[in-house]
Amino acid sequence: SDVRFAGLGGDQTLRVWRAPDAAAPIVVIAPALGLRASWYEELARALTRRGVHAAITEWPGQGTSPVRPSRERDWGYAELLDHVSASRVAARAALPNATRFAWLGHSLGGTLALMDAGRSKAVDHVVLVASGTPYAEAWTGRMRLQLRIASRLFPLAGRLLGHHDGRLGFGGREARTLMAQWSHLARHGTWKVDGIDIEGCLRACQCPVLAVRLEGDDCAPAAATDHLLSKIGSQAIERVTWDGPRESPHVRWPRTPDHAAELTVRFVR
């Protein structure tokens, strides 16, 4: 079923799959940058088959979102975090008898899930899949060089175009402020976001965290995940390495979701 809520850009849709047991936990999927909610539908079904409620939030600018980034419409991490929090509240309202709430965050979605967990006591678990930071010094070789170049190029291109263009080799059409803040993180290893202490939100995250790394995932190496996890306050962190899809594992793992669903449900229960 679909649940409507007021998110970034106006009226938003949260796709919800209900488990037979009304008291089952809720797992809400937060996508990676540039991926629409529909990419994760098989994952949501796999979760529900294992007895938990599942939902997928849609990023502003993607899929069914009513807003697209432009010179006139812009946002950054602070606005995305408010959007994520609003989708959590909507999921809770749609499933009032659910016993626990968990985020399943992919890449950027995992980062925002940790931020929301630090800002709200309503999050009981966070599962990260293929999630880390783009801090260049946590990477090696060619990818480190590419991140250093991208962190200089993306803010400049955003100012010129009014938005981030996916043809630059990363993400899709994205908000220029989001990518400027991403670029600051890539250069300095810390967030600099007006109006909110992102680093403080991460330190306040105390809930149990499961970090799933994909073998062969060049877009989220172990050191990038470690850099992200070093910022949170939780002492209950479990790490798992998964031999996922051989081709493009960072993007394609939700298409073969059974193992990730099994790990998630076992952790949340």
Describe the 3D structure:
The protein has 269 residues and is an alpha/beta fold. Helices cover 38% and strands 17% of the residues. It has an 8-stranded mixed sheet, sandwiched between helices. Helix 1 links the parallel strand 3 and strand 4 (53-56). The chain is globular and about 50 Å long.
Task: Put the structure in a nutshell.
The protein is an alpha/beta fold and 269 residues long. Helices cover 38% and strands 17% of the residues. It has helices at residues 41-49, 77-94, 108-119, 141-161, 176-188, 198-203, 222-229, 249-252, 258-268, and strands at residues 2-7, 10-17, 26-30, 53-56, 101-106, 125-129, 209-214, 237-242.
Mean pLDDT score: 95
Distance between the termini: 24 Å
Q: Helical percent range?
A: 25-40%
Counting H and I runs of at least 4 residues, what is the number of helices?
A: 9
- How would you spell out the order of helices and strands? EEEHEHEHEHHHEHEHH
What does the radius of gyration come to?
A: 17 Å
Strand content bin: 15-25%
Q: Please mark out the parts with pLDDT under 50 across 5 or more consecutive residues, or reply none.
A: none
Shape: globular
Please give the largest β-sheet.
8 strands, mixed
Major sheet: order of its strands?
1-2-4-3-5-6-7-8
Let me know the number of strands. 8
Descriptors:
9 helices, alpha/beta, eight-stranded mixed beta sheet, 269 residues, single chain
